[in-house]
Amino acid sequence: MSALIHIREKLMNRQHNVIVFNALHTLFTLSSYLAIPRVYARIIDLQVCAWLKQDPIDSERISTWIEEHHSVLQFDKSLDAYKDDCHREMVYFKIAGEVLLYASIVPIIEQQMNKINLWNYYITIEMPALNIILQMLLSGILIDREELINAREDLLTLMNKLELQAYRLVKRRFKMNRQKDLIKILYGELHLPIQRTPHGRICLKKSYLNILANKHPLPKLITEYRQIQSALDRCIDRFEQYINEPIKPQSLQRLRREASWQTERTYAYCHFFTITGRMIVINPPLQHVPKRFLIQSLQKESIVRLRKMIIARTDFQLVSFDYSQLELRILAHLSNDEKLKTRLINDTDFFISLAADLLKKSEHEITCEQRQNAKQICYGILYGMSKETFARETQMNINDAEEFIENFYKTFPIMTQYLNDIKQRVLETGFVQSIYGRSLYFDLNHMTSNEMMKARMERQAINFVIQASACDIMKVAMERINQTLDRTFPFDLKIRPTPIRPVYLVLQIHDELIFEIEISLRTNEIINIIRHAMERNDYINLLLPVQIKSGDNWESMISVV
Prior knowledge:
The chain has helices at about 1-10, 25-35, 45-50, 60-70, 90-115, 120-140, 145-170, 180-190, 205-210, 215-240, 250-260, 325-335, 340-345, 350-360, 370-380, 385-395, 400-410, 415-430, 445, 450-490, 525-535; strands at about 15-20, 40-45, 140-145, 265, 270, 280, 295, 300-305, 310, 315-325, 430-435, 440, 505-510, 510-520, 545-550, 560. By secondary structure, the protein is α+β, with helices and mostly antiparallel strands.
């Protein structure tokens, strides 16, 4: 027991370094058992360091990785012999040996990362972010169990109705999920134009089915059926697995109940070991909860609202803070394109204004579809969308799509030149960097071996510069928010084991932060603290506005002025 108390004190000490592998998982489990609401110690996560160095590791090869990076110590394989040993002393010996190895590798990692200017990046951005994300995971998020059950029933009912409608359309039964049946019906029996990929294969992807939707109702029905199936498989089924999952000891569950924590809270797992650093929330997959969508193939139109099941606890509300066009603002800053900056600064809807320019129309003439096309080409061009893909996605003919793209390039020539400069730079140097200095290196010999690989490298380079910069900005904003909230609402562990605050970060998804904020006289004060922390940035020379919405659940949020 004294050892656990010692560990608890170390984790709560801001001056103490905690060396760990896979910090989010390890410290989540440890903090849960010790009833710690957050970790203050400085986290040195070997897995994150390896990811930054583009030398990824997992738990299976940590010992080999240490051997490769350590010039003196060799990982003693004999320690593994004790992992199933019943002698407690041997188990302790093994643990002590691994701890020494972990500690001994840190100075070497620091030296290696300093050589590529990443150690300071880790200390100033990734280290604070680990503490904040861990705190978010420990807060959990509340799921409405009844809404989850109702959502399953509603989706199954809609699927059944869509199946019956499909059978009526083709006058026979068939398997909606069987590609062979669909190809036979769409192209053999209904004689619809065959849709092929650039490689000549018959394709039934959504973008191809959308082209056929103007010729027969079945393709749209298939798309809607798949949308419901995906919501069931990727969202509803997964959430049902994790509600009240016994990942926490009974003692902590008791503490949380005493502190008004509801038992329907679910505790997710996340990682950000992607190329750009985008955080992925899994188990349950909160990022897979879709926005509302329409089912229009039935006689009566239905709206699916799955985000209703994500709710706030009693006397709290969910408040969303979403950066407005963050990636475009980063691009405007980096390219120094004054036309793009001016358009982003104006109060008018950016994509309506853009569509009006591209189509040579007035803004009031622009339809929702034309606005969406402008948005799609704007982001599509950033990340390498071809004119063929754009034509298919927007259901334009290839000539109209090509003209639309050319007009976009002509509208922002400086931005276009900047994107070309990134491509040239990566070919010359083999790497690109985010605004805050995180690097992505490419193997030029491999990536320039053919035109397809070269084009892929160029797309990844542009994608990294913009999206990795967006990730950095979000992490810096999270740290700034955390510091201000700590000063305003400090944790007082002397009052109770799990202190109650009027504000908790419960989810970070793309360019959006979602908080649970207590409904009180200080609600507006808290909202303004978060807004100002997000909008302030020392690296971007134009405003980063934040759209704010609030509500009892994730679906019913309305704008906050």
